[in-house]
Amino acid sequence: MPASPKNTKTFDPLTPPLHRFVDRLTLMGNYTDEVLNEMERRAARERFPIVGPVVGTLLMQITAWLKPVRVMELGSGFGYSAYWIARALPEGAELMLTDQNPENLQLAEYYLDRGGFPVAFQFYRGDALEVLEKQPMESLDLVFLDLDKARYPEALDLALPRLRSGGALLADNVLLRGRVLALPEEDDPEDVRAMRAFLETVYTHPRCITTLFPVRDGVSLTLIQ
Ligand SMILES: C[S@@+](CC[C@H](N)C(=O)[O-])C[C@H]1O[C@@H](n2cnc3c(N)ncnc32)[C@H](O)[C@@H]1O
């Protein structure tokens, strides 16, 4: 019997033509700038996973609407997604970047500095969850998850009480290239089980109202009540 494709890396039930269409429109919008283009070239060269311009635009839009003052990103890489968020932050806002790789954060500092944003950036090297745990209750306006996918449920548990009512939680890669769509089985990989648990919680928790945007690899947006 052929192996089930449901949890293999190559299985992609999403629709490439739709993605190409949205990518093309976003490129027509030309919302990027020189620094972002440079970061995109680095990501392509080094095969580093960044959110890309479609999700970047969504992050910028949500930030512009919410006007968050305290923002935390879990899994910042070299600062591409943070740069999109920073572009829409109000003056004096605080954006905390976290990454377990210090070299990534050094680059993030370099790129964000070039953006000249009137924002206080903080760079935390190490486990993002430890940094999140230290944040006071109800002190965050916006949290963006893009760390190790198996840790999304843990990140959610810590983030929820630390987000204020009216705040938002965004999470990237919630479709795991479609691997979350199949019916659950006992031997599902850890990231698939974790992502399903994460999504079930953000859709059912009494403080959460969620929409899953099927752009790129899926982004969930949760309003915290
Ligand atoms: C997908 S990349 C982030 C990309 C970035 N958000 C962007 O779009 O520009 C994921 C990053 O999370 C970091 N990471 C994974 N697990 C982490 C953890 N527990 N704590 C801190 N950083 C973590 C990795 O080092 C990696 O740089």
Q: Main traits of this protein?
A:
Rossmann fold; binds S-adenosylmethionine; 8 helices; alpha/beta; disordered N terminus
Structural domain count:
1
- Classify the beta-strand content into a percent band: 15-25%
Computed CA radius of gyration, to the nearest angstrom: 17 Å
- How far the N terminus sits from the C terminus, by CA atoms, comes to 48 Å
What would you note in describing this structure?
By secondary structure, this protein is an alpha/beta fold. It contains eight helices and seven strands. The chain has a seven-stranded mixed beta sheet with strand order 3-2-1-4-5-7-6, with helices on both faces. Helix 5 (102-115) links the parallel strand 2 (94-99) and strand 3. Helix 3 runs parallel beside helix 4 (80-88). The longest helix is centred in the first third of the chain and has 15 residues, at 52-66. The radius of gyration is 17 Å and the shape is globular. Residues 1-11 have low confidence and may be disordered. Residues 49-51, 75-77, 80-81, 98-101, 104, 127-129, 146-148, 151 line the site of S-adenosylmethionine (SAM).
